[in-house]
Design a protein that fits this description.
The complex is a heterotrimer of chains A (about 160), B (about 750) and C (about 280).
Chain A lengths: L4 E3 L1 E8 L2 E8 L4 H8 L18 E4 L2 E4 L12 E3 L6 H8 L10 H14 L6 H4 L11 H22 L2
Parallel strand pairs in A: 2-6
Antiparallel strand pairs in A: 2-3, 4-5, 4-6
Helix pairs in contact in A: 2-5, 3-5
Chain B lengths: L5 H5 L15 E7 L5 E8 L9 E3 L24 E2 L5 E7 L2 H10 E7 L22 E9 L2 H7 L2 E9 L11 E6 L5 E5 L4 H12 L6 E5 L12 H16 L3 E4 L2 H7 L6 E9 L5 E13 L5 H11 L8 E10 L13 H19 L3 H8 L19 H12 L1 H14 L3 E13 L6 H5 L2 E6 L5 E4 L9 H13 L6 E3 L18 H23 L8 H14 L6 E6 L8 E2 L4 E2 L5 E13 L5 E11 L6 H20 L32 E5 L16 H4 L1 H13 L5 E2 L3 H8 L4
Parallel strand pairs in B: 1-12, 8-26, 10-11, 14-15, 18-19, 24-25
Antiparallel strand pairs in B: 1-5, 2-4, 2-6, 3-5, 7-15, 8-13, 9-10, 9-12, 13-14, 16-23, 17-18, 17-20, 21-22, 23-24
Helix pairs in contact in B: 4-5, 7-8, 8-9, 8-18, 13-14, 14-15, 16-18
Chain C lengths: L1 E3 L4 H11 L3 E4 L9 H4 L7 E4 L9 E4 L2 E5 L4 H6 L1 H6 L1 H9 L3 H4 L4 H7 L5 H7 L2 E8 L2 E6 L4 E3 L2 E2 L6 E8 L3 E10 L7 E10 L5 E6 L6 E2 L1 H8 L11 H7 L10 H17 L8
Parallel strand pairs in C: 1-3, 2-3
Antiparallel strand pairs in C: 4-5, 5-10, 6-7, 6-10, 8-9, 11-12, 12-13, 13-14
Helix pairs in contact in C: 5-8, 9-10
The chains are: A alpha+beta (about 160), B alpha+beta (about 750), C alpha+beta (about 280).
Chain lengths: ~160, ~750, ~280
């Protein structure tokens, strides 16, 4: 049982943006801190540390989570996607609609949007899905329209690919 | 043109202060006052900490005067012997490990011998609460036009009302943060999240006793500001700098959200009393307005906030007799400071709610009462400024009403309300204005300078101290320069907002950047073209590709290929005259005008108000970039809806913020606001703004609170006078406690 | 601070027993990690028993009119589970409003129960059903009705060595199922007034549950009595004395006692007037 107990640091192995990492993390370290201060993946932002603002949203095994509320050691054996893994073409869709202003909430917004794109959840509107991403600049219209348009454009292009 | 840095932000590449690579640095933190007011008796350092591992800075480590240089110099950088508000900074600590640092901050106990705080700014202070002058009033401003008493005596109807607004927190999503280090040449460099590099530079020069050459301030990408990073960065900048100087290595200080909420500035709470005389036909005869603002513990920007508050207090209306008395009062709360709108939102809330209450009492429609009184060209504002800009303000209102389908909706709401057991719908209007740029002689005093530099490759670099904080300044200033020079926007470069590289073009505040600084860029571009024309001996003024080519040639001919510089310095438009002593004349070079219409639904079971539709029509001169402008309006309206309905700072017994968490300070989510805000622009170019632009950033903060509460009044029949009009407050109006 | 990462529930129970008073159980962390950097130093001596590797606890099973949620079941798991949503629709309703999507994907029903917040939305929905929880320790399993689990503000009958293993909902047929959360805003909010109602279609018995109205999420026996007696109600205000017999809301950062009482009465009245012809308008 002793190998199941950790003081100080815990060795973990995980995938981040498709790349394999082996790290020793502190037991009291958050996923957010590991991403930002150990791996230099500073795209993920800390807006509150309370799990309220969603600026630190990443995908953990494909689901959006607040990385400020995830103990880093829990990521062992799992996969993490961050804003740095966002395709520029994909981002360009959002750019058309005033989705970003100051940019501090943007990485979290992009991750929620990528989850919507990946999963196309039924009975969940873009607006509802975005409720966990506080934005203080846009008034949300630009964000929601940008995401809707992106999802639509992506769907159309994948339909076209599927039906040549 | 799309936002220049958009893709960088959408892919997470944009670097904010906490993202910048930094080696061998210490984290900084602040020890704060637990009490509202008192003398510092002792500071106890916990015995569980090895203090030899920490850098500790107190007031004795300050090389210059212990003063944060702002309008006045009353605020200490670090409290020395007394504290004036809870969360006032007393010590700064630095350590390589952030966890250890937090543990250390928690183990310091500051012992305060308490004195009686003054916390209720509406009540007159008792003798023992007086800490400034004879009455705690930091600043008193009066406007007098005509004979108010006489006019009130002759008025058919006198209508009175008292309106109150609470403190609002900016909640920029990126908290305050700074990094400081000393370079090899002994220059202290500071980079961080800030609006006004030269404000911070001046504060550092004063507090650290350094020359301008010994200090350098560089703006990092800034994740929202809204005024909250106008004055406060001087304070956190000084703290970070002091730690760096003592530590001898770089120091980074990033506030946690809780600290940011509790310790930084907020919108001034207001208490405004209106006594208004009307003719029976609805004409305004006299406006008697008393304004009291809670300034908090130190002066900061309160005198100028009060000034804008007073100047806007009478609204966009013609009235021959106006008396406005404004006071900014010192209390033992966190200092209140700049926030989008800068005093005007408080004024317009009071005045526009009052106009609605008056319309009801006069039996005149709220739209009609405004039509009767909206200022016409040739008429004068409260300060005696003649408005003659050709804007049809009544037409603006009618445009908003027609976009909102006002008449039909009012009828539809009546029918709905009569048939629905617990839902009530209503519609409300606000007409208002916002003076663009600094108040009075402010722009003259600033004497802003802008340079544009023709580079060796023919591109042109715009050198200004104005900053991008999400509003789109980088993009709009690029557009302005490109248009003036006939350039492709890719050939325009905006220099970093670095005090070593750019002249002082004034702060990024007061909705002045596109209008005032943009106009100076145009002039500097003209100067550059003239310089190139002369140097290259062209026959005519070169533009576009010719200019680019000519710049390449001219620069290549200079010794060591120095760029060729065009420059411009602010000059007062000829027809602007302001008398600070009497508060008369042209308070602003120009005004933006607006008419907003809000529709709400109130649930009588829960007293929750939902804003269902919103129309925002404004005249802002030329619209430089419609996408960005629309984003400014939508964002401002939503921030104002938050202020109107849910955002409230609650205070503990020491005057500190008791809900300093985003869980309990309630800003709107995507589900709380209308996503269908109908934004309309009417363009009437202003002769002294870039391409005819006026200010835009603050305007949308001014009107929505009144429009929303007017709609609540229309829906429910009550007379709400307080923001935020939370469900709890609305319940007390609708179901009074017996 | 120490973290134990057991892979079986029996190891987890042993570790918790060994940890004594220093032991604390962690699942999704959405409550425990709030403001973590500012609070981490308060946990220097804590021994966390982290359940995340005890994968069998992730299971949702539905058989013989019984829904069983393992301790690691998240809100999102229930939103995704057609069986759970169909059998107990209030669970899905609660899951969707408990917090943002980012909270729904991490927060667990078991954590919501064990954290003991009077504002717990998951508990509000669970208590509206016939719910039992299974508490595991080295001494074995103990079953406790959720109705009797809370003894006071953030205190429960659970012992320090017990881990919540499963939440067991027994399915009845319901004539009425109602859930309403009034929060500080439309989404991602903490509840100011929460109300859940069910009426069993077989024996017509009622469950009336409120959160954020008392030191714990609580059933309301006086209200249940009035409903069982089919006592007509003149209007929303008529409910107030009965509400006062069941709950004692307070003024706090989020709302006022009076608001909570008045709104609870109005929600009750409108919900029931729409569904029960004997209530009156």
């Amino acid at each position: 049982m002793s190998d199941q107990t950790a003081h100080g640091t815990v060795p973990i192995a995980c995938s981040i943006n498709g790349r394999a990492y082996s790290l020793d993390v502190q037991v009291n370290e958050r996923l957010l801190d590991v991403l930002r201060y150990r791996l230099g993946l500073t795209g993920t932002k800390e807006g509150c540390g309370e799990g309220e603002c969603g600026a630190c949203t990443v995908l953990l095994d494909g689901l959006p989570v607040n990385s400020c509320l995830v103990p880093a050691y829990q990521v062992d054996g799992r996969s993490v996607e961050t804003v740095e893994g966002t395709d520029e073409q994909w981002a360009a869709h959002l750019h058309e609609h005033g989705t970003t202003q100051c940019g501090a909430c943007t990485p979290g917004v992009v991750m929620t949007a990528r989850w919507l794109d990946d999963t196309n959840p039924e009975d969940l509107s873009v607006r509802e899905a975005l409720a966990g991403n506080l934005c203080r600049c846009t008034g949300y219209r630009g964000i929601c329209e940008g995401i809707k348009a992106t999802l639509k454009a992506r769907q159309q292009s994948s339909n076209e690919e599927g039906n040549p | 043109m799309k936002r220049i840095e958009g893709i960088s932000k959408l892919t997470g590449r944009e670097r904010y202060v906490d993202d910048l690579p930094l080696e061998g640095f210490l984290w900084g933190a602040t020890v704060r006052s637990p009490a509202a007011r008192g003398r510092i008796k002792a500071i106890h350092f916990g015995t569980d900490i090895d203090w030899s591992q920490f850098v500790i800075v107190d007031h004795r480590d300050i090389p210059g005067p212990n003063e944060v240089a702002m309008i006045e110099r009353d605020m200490p950088i670090l409290a020395a012997s007394e504290v004036r508000h809870a969360h006032e900074a007393i010590l700064c600590l630095a350590h390589p490990d952030r966890h250890e640092l937090r543990r250390a901050v928690a183990s310091v106990r500051v012992e305060i011998e308490p004195e009686e705080p003054y916390l209720d700014f509406v009540a007159e202070p008792t003798q023992s609460q007086i800490q400034y002058g004879s009455d705690n009033v930091f600043k008193h401003i009066a406007v007098n036009k005509g004979d108010v008493e006489q006019a009130l005596a002759e008025a058919d109807v006198i209508i009175e009302g008292v309106y109150e607004t609470g403190a609002q927190e900016h909640v920029y999503i990126e908290p305050q943060g700074m990094v400081a280090w000393e370079d090899d040449a002994g220059v202290l460099r500071l980079t961080g999240s800030l609006q006004c590099p030269y404000y911070v530079l001046n504060a550092l020069m004063h507090g650290l006793n350094r020359t301008a050459e010994q200090v350098r301030v560089i703006q990092a990408s800034t994740g929202g500001a809204f005024g909250g990073k106008e004055d406060y960065p001087s304070i956190i900048g000084l703290h970070t700098a002091l730690l760096t100087l003592k530590a001898g290595c770089p120091v980074k200080m990033i506030y946690d959200r809780g600290e940011d909420l509790a310790a930084t500035t907020k919108r001034h709470p207001s208490h405004i009393r209106h006594r208004t005389g009307f003719a029976r036909d609805g004409r305004l005869l006299a406006q008697d307005i008393d304004i009291r603002l809670d300034a908090g513990a130190y002066v900061t920007l309160s005198p100028v906030v009060l000034s804008r508050c007073v100047i806007h207090a009478a609204g966009p209306y013609q009235c021959a007799n106006v008396r406005i008395n404004g006071q900014a009062v010192m209390t033992n709360r966190v200092p209140f400071g700049a926030f989008r709108g800068f005093g005007a939102p408080q004024s317009h809330f009071a005045n526009e709610r009052h106009m609605d209450a008056a319309a009801r009492q006069l039996g005149i429609g709220p739209a009609e009462l405004r039509r009767i009184n909206l200022i016409r060209d040739g008429q004068q504002t409260a300060t005696g400024q003649v408005i003659n800009d050709g804007t049809d303000r009544v037409g603006l209102l009618d445009d908003a009403l027609s976009r909102a389908d006002y008449g039909r909706l009012r009828e539809a709401h009546r029918a709905f309300n009569a048939s629905n057991p617990y839902r009530r719908r209503g519609i409300g209007i606000a007409t208002f204005h916002h003076g663009a740029g600094f108040t009075g002689s402010g722009e003259v005093d600033l004497a802003s300078v802008v340079n544009v530099a023709g580079l060796a490759d023919g591109r042109v670099e715009v050198q200004v101290a104005n900053t991008e904080m999400g509003q789109g300044a980088l993009t709009v200033l690029t557009q302005i320069a490109a248009a003036r020079l006939g350039y492709d926007t890719n050939d325009i470069v905006i220099a970093p907002a670095d005090t070593a590289l750019v002249p002082n073009s004034g702060p990024t505040v007061a909705s002045r950047t596109a209008m005032v600084v943009g106009f100076l860029i145009e002039q500097a571009c003209d100067d550059l073209q003239a310089g190139v024309m002369q140097a290259a001996a062209c026959d005519q003024r070169p533009v576009g590709a010719h200019l680019k080519q000519a710049i390449q040639i001219v620069v290549s001919q200079t010794e060591d290929h120095q760029p060729i510089i065009g420059s411009a310095t602010y000059g007062k438009p000829p027809d602007v005259h302001w008398d600070e002593a009497t508060y008369t004349g042209s308070a602003y070079g120009t005004y933006a005008w607006a008419a907003y219409v809000a529709s709400v639904e109130v649930d009588l079971r829960t007293f929750v108000t939902t804003v269902t539709d919103f129309v925002a029509v404004q005249e802002i001169g030329t619209v430089l970039n419609e996408g960005l402008a629309r984003g400014q309006i939508e964002g401002g309206v939503v921030q104002a809806i938050g202020w109107a309905l849910s955002e409230e700072c609650l205070w503990d017994e020491q005057g500190g913020m008791s809900n300093a968490q985003l869980t309990n300070y309630i800003i709107p989510t995507s589900c709380d606001v209308p996503l269908n805000i109908d934004v309309g622009f009417v363009e009437n170019p202003y002769a002294y703004g870039a391409q005819g632009a006026k200010g835009i950033g603050e305007l949308p903060m001014d009107g929505p609170a009144a429009a929303v509460l007017n709609a609540i009044a229309d829906a429910t029949g009550v007379n709400p006078t307080v923001v935020p009009m939370t469900p709890e407050r609305l319940m007390e109006l609708l179901v009074p406690n017996e | 601070m120490r973290v134990c990462m057991p892979t079986t529930l029996s190891d987890a129970c042993s570790m918790l027993a060994d940890a004594g008073t220093a032991g604390r159980v962690m699942a999704g962390g959405t409550d425990l990690l709030v403001d973590w950097p500012q609070r981490a130093h308060e946990h220097d001596d804590t021994i966390w028993i982290d359940l995340s590797r005890v994968t069998p606890l992730r299971r949702i099973t539905c058989a013989d009119h019984v829904l069983r949620l393992g301790a690691l079941t998240t809100y999102w798991d229930v939103v995704q589970s057609e069986q759970a949503a169909e059998a107990f629709p209030l669970l899905k309703q609660a899951a969707r409003v408990v917090g943002s999507l980012q909270i729904q994907t991490r927060g667990t029903w078991a954590g919501n129960i064990m954290n003991g917040s009077p504002a717990a939305d998951g508990v509000l929905a669970l208590m509206a059903y016939d719910t039992t929880i299974e508490l595991r320790s080295t001494a074995g399993v103990r079953r406790v009705s959720l109705d009797t689990f809370y003894t006071g503000y953030r205190s429960t009958v659970a012992r320090a060595d017990e881990i919540l293993e499963s939440i067991v909902l027994r399915r009845h047929r319901y004539r009425i199922q109602y859930f309403e959360k009034i929060g500080t805003r439309q989404a991602q909010a903490i509840t100011k007034v929460g109300l859940a109602l069910t009426q069993d279609s077989a024996d017509h018995s009622w469950r009336v549950v409120m959160n954020s109205m008392a030191p714990t999420v609580t059933r309301c026996p006086a209200l249940e009595g009035v409903l069982s007696a089919q006592q007509p109600m003149a209007g929303p205000d008529a409910w107030l004395p009965i509400i006062d017999a069941d709950v004692s809301p307070i003024d706090d950062l989020r709302s006022t006692s009076r608001y909570r009482r008045v709104v609870a009465a109005r929600l009750l009245h409108s919900a029931l007037a729409d569904r029960c012809d004997w209530i009156g308008q």
